[in-house]
Design a protein that fits this description.
By secondary structure, the chain is an alpha+beta fold. The protein has 17 helices and eleven strands. The longest helix has 27 residues, at 405-431.
Length: 450
């Protein structure tokens, strides 16, 4: 929508005595002659109306001042309606188009949209999309970042120059800057949302732009998480008295790992959400209402901080995401979480493999994955895990699941356990051969009470 400033002036042609409305807007000017007359001697130039109470005689017809004023007002209203429609359509009418609109006719040509820069169009897109989709500040930041990248790669980009070739240049620019293919595809998905919006709004796109997708090789991201023994080593580690900040972020990570909470939900968790054996939350990301049972270790963390008085009734003091991730790496290094993880990604056509120690890559997101993977390792059914995480389908939870070697060993160990139990039963049977019934009964009672 735009604003069109216009001015009108109502006057009489002294020769024909006809009333005319002259309109000026955006360096344009046109006139509308009304189907009525007035006596120039009975015309008030200041009010641009006939003098009140006067009668205007022409041929055998008489016009009162009130009737003439009503005809003038109707003409002005029709002009106002025409400009309002143009403002809503974001168009500036030509003389011909305004005349046809005021006369109630269909214009011979469609009004041409006001020419906006691509930057202005992107601002319109952000305003419309953020309102329609209830974007968070983080989402708006990502889209603004995408626009900055496009402008850095293609300074002064316009809608006419927004071509398939420019998109290819942008892809190569990302590769040259060292972005991974996964990140590049994500940035292009943001840009693609803008391109679809342009198409929906009726703006003419250059050939191939709407369908363009960067041809990039992408491998599944390595899902990182703590194994149960690593989590417990982390949880039980004693930090020095001057390392309270490391102890706090460790506790926050472990609480997320024991409850499946995201960072955003941990940050918003209030004491009112905490009950004796469970917590109740409405997740910030997906708005799911969850009731999550509290394990022994989760309760211990709550009891540790329950007497603290934080702002807005918060359960914990939670650092900003970036800070907590930095301190987590320091805390994990202190504890000795040095298991090596192989990270694989592509940068353009180049395959890159990096071997990192876990403390180098640990972040808040690993806590939720740890909950999922450890729960599955303990044999908890996926449906139960999903009831805590809020995932609606198994496929939705899949990115967080890594069936690690620990899970496999725990499952396969059942074979060994079954074999051992069989051997034990066989040994007991041999040793108890010939023992009377009373003695066997006593042995069974002792085994039950052990």
């Amino acid at each position: 929508m735009i604003e069109i400033k216009y001015r009108t002036r109502v006057f009489i042609d002294r020769k024909t005595k006809r009333i005319t409305i002259r309109v000026r807007w955006n360096n344009n000017e046109t006139s509308f002659t009304l189907d009525c007359k007035a006596d120039p001697e009975k015309w008030d130039g200041n009010s641009q109306r006939p003098m009140p109470g006067t009668i205007h005689k022409f041929s055998d017809q008489n016009y009162s001042a009130k009737v003439i004023s009503n005809i003038i007002d109707e003409g002005l209203d029709m002009i106002k309606v025409a400009f309002t429609k143009c403002e809503l359509d974001s168009v500036v009418p030509s003389k011909e188009i305004l005349k046809t609109m005021v006369r109630g006719e269909q214009p011979e040509q469609e009004p041409v949209k006001v020419k906006k820069t691509l930057s202005e169009l992107y601002e319109d897109f952000l305003e419309a999309a953020s309102n329609d989709r209830n974007w968070t500040k983080n989402s708006c930041y990502k889209y603004n970042q995408t626009w900055d990248h496009l402008n850095e790669c293609c300074p002064g980009i316009t809608l006419e120059k927004f071509t398939k070739e420019r998109l290819r240049e942008l892809k190569n620019w990302y590769v040259g800057k060292g972005y991974s293919n996964t990140t590049i595809r994500k940035m292009f998905s943001f840009l693609g949302t803008f391109i679809k919006w342009l198409h929906t709004e009726g703006y003419e796109l250059q050939p191939g732009v709407l369908a363009y997708k960067p041809n990039l090789t992408v491998v599944s991201k390595t899902v990182t998480f703590l194994k149960h023994n690593e989590l417990m080593d982390f949880y039980n580690f004693k930090f020095a008295d001057d390392e309270k900040n490391l102890e706090l972020v460790r506790d926050m990570f472990c609480f997320m790992a024991f409850t499946s909470l995201r960072y955003s939900d941990l940050e918003n968790l209030k004491k009112a959400n905490v009950f004796d054996d469970h917590i109740e939350v409405c997740t910030k990301k997906t708005h799911d209402k969850l009731s999550i049972p509290l394990t022994i270790h989760a309760k211990e963390i709550i009891n540790k901080y329950k007497d603290e008085d934080y702002k807005n009734g918060k359960m914990f003091r939670v650092y900003a995401n970036q800070k907590i991730n930095e301190l987590l790496k320091e805390a994990a290094k202190k504890v000795g979480l040095e298991r090596e993880v192989v990270l694989i990604h592509y940068q353009g056509n180049t395959r890159i493999e990096e071997v990192k120690k876990f403390y180098e890559i640990i972040g808040c997101h690993d806590a939720r994955r740890t909950f999922v993977c450890c729960s599955l390792a303990f044999g908890i059914p996926p449906t139960v895990v999903m009831s805590c995480t809020g995932h609606s389908t198994y496929n939705a939870m899949k990115p967080y699941i890594e069936v690690a070697d620990e899970t496999q060993r725990l499952e396969l160990a059942k074979w060994d356990k079954a074999d051992n139990q069989s051997d034990i039963r066989s040994d007991i049977a041999k040793k108890l051969e010939g023992v009377d019934e009373a003695t066997l009964t006593k042995v069974l009672e002792l085994l039950k009470s052990a």
